[in-house]
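Interim report, section 4.2 (structural modelling).
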Amino acid sequence: MKVYLKQIVERLSRYLSKIKTFYTNSVRKMYLAGLVVFSVLFVGCCGSEPLRFPTWFKFGAASSAYQVEGAWNVSDKGESIWDYLVHTRPEIVAGGGNGDVACDSYHLWRRDIQMCEELGLDTYRFSISWSRLLPSGYPNIISEDGKNYYNNLIDGLLEKGIEPVVTVHHFDLPQSLQDLGGWANPLIVDWFTDYAQVVFSLFGDRVTYWVTINEPFILCEGVFPLFLAPYYDDPNIGRYLCNKNVLVAHAKAYRMYDDLFRSKYNGKLSLSTLFFWFEPATPEDEEITDLMFEFWEGRYAHPIFSKEGGWPVKLEKNLADNARMEGYSHPRLPPFTSEEIDLVRGTYDYFALQHFTSRLVRRLRPGERNPMWPLIGSSEMGIIMESHPSWVSVNDWFAIWPQGFHKQLNWLNTTYDLKEIFITENGIPLGPDVDDTLRVEYHRSYLEQILQALHEGVPITGYTAWTLMDNFEWVSGYTVQFGLYSVNFTDPMRTRTPRTSAKYYANVTRTRML
Ligand SMILES: *[C@@H]1O[C@H](CO)[C@@H](O)[C@H](O)[C@H]1NC(C)=O
Ligand SMILES: *[C@@H]1O[C@H](CO)[C@@H](O)[C@H](O)[C@H]1NC(C)=O
Ligand SMILES: *[C@@H]1O[C@H](CO)[C@@H](O)[C@H](O)[C@H]1NC(C)=O
Ligand SMILES: *[C@@H]1O[C@H](CO)[C@@H](O)[C@H](O)[C@H]1NC(C)=O
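Predicted structure of the assembly:
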């Protein structure tokens, strides 16, 4: 509307300037009159009624178990792949450090709830540590202390009117299961389903929104370029086995919830999907960009969210051709059986979207190597991902381009048949300094895109800032932070202090305006 009015005024003034020489005096009056009309319309239609988030829209913040809890060895807790990795190869963490204590949320959860209250949140998304709840990795032993910890957190949130959004698994597999191959072993489907059944039976009475598995793409592919445990140097096979197993595990857990819990608890399940928006660098790169969408977005979403299910057809063929050319006797991406296609298809009640940034996509030039993401996209697909010169680049993988988020939301809405999109992560990595005006601008500009998409009819029901507070950011350690609150990691009390962005976000949640 504003743009439309501006165009009218611009056209009017262009027209007026042409006849200015003839009717200078009357024109001045008309121009002034035009400005008055414009101002009245502008204030009348848009100025006094800025877009607002509806009262049912849920504002939240997120964290994950290993990144905040600490207390890695209290009580009967088992060892996770992160405990194992940071203790056996401490040199891989930038600046040193590990999650042994992290934010000490295992002890300071009351303060975490208080922060959610200070922010005026409707939801708090956290994850359950598999090895804290099931020390052996299997449901033969359920830890009393683990159970109590999550019960306290859930009840404490509900007491303050904050809805828990719970991630069943967020990157911290029990080491006992990793020793048997972890996500590359198809038996993980049953291990995960058993674990999820314990989680739903203990907490399902109080939780509506479930995320079964966080960012399967990063879970499977983040082992190369090596920024996640188990830190395997196996880019070729493991990630494709994981790709299939993770989808089937999610689906089995979803079907199990249907059978055992849905009629009682009527919760909403999904897995959270990390999407980058890909923009072709030139019109010639459009085809390769489509393939990139299938490689990144489609490979993890198409089997669940599309009408036909299964792998994206063009991509599956492309990957099978690659494998054949490289001398493999089977495609490295394991095919689905038709039973598996049916099992996996439709196992969602909403779409949990995690979006951070956009990338420009083009074909690698002969002899060129992708500096970042050496394999994601590059060797397999011959693709390089970069920033656009006009975007505000924050580091080598992250640029601020809010329009890309809007495009992503529209793409999602039109590509799959979705009744509900819930943003389960969105945030910006900055240094640990306390001043974060750039973070304010990031959240403001990305929320603005949500507001516009909402008013265009994209069914977005919630927004979750990543992250509630500074925490252990995987192999980046404590050198890169996404927190609305800063945490003093040298203080035994792990004092949390609201940043400018926390104050800004609290204003947004209260006024429902930007
Ligand atoms: C737990 O780990 C810490 C190091 O983070 C260590 O100091 C402590 O002795 C360990 N406690 C037990 C009971 O093993
Ligand atoms: C969202 O998707 C629906 C169903 O495909 C379509 O009718 C609608 O126009 C889309 N809205 C936007 C804003 O993309
Ligand atoms: C962090 O805590 C330590 C120990 O309590 C204290 O000496 C230091 O001043 C604190 N740093 C900040 C920035 O508050
Ligand atoms: C929050 O809102 C108050 C009152 O409108 C305003 O004074 C303050 O500057 C806002 N803070 C931020 C960080 O936007």
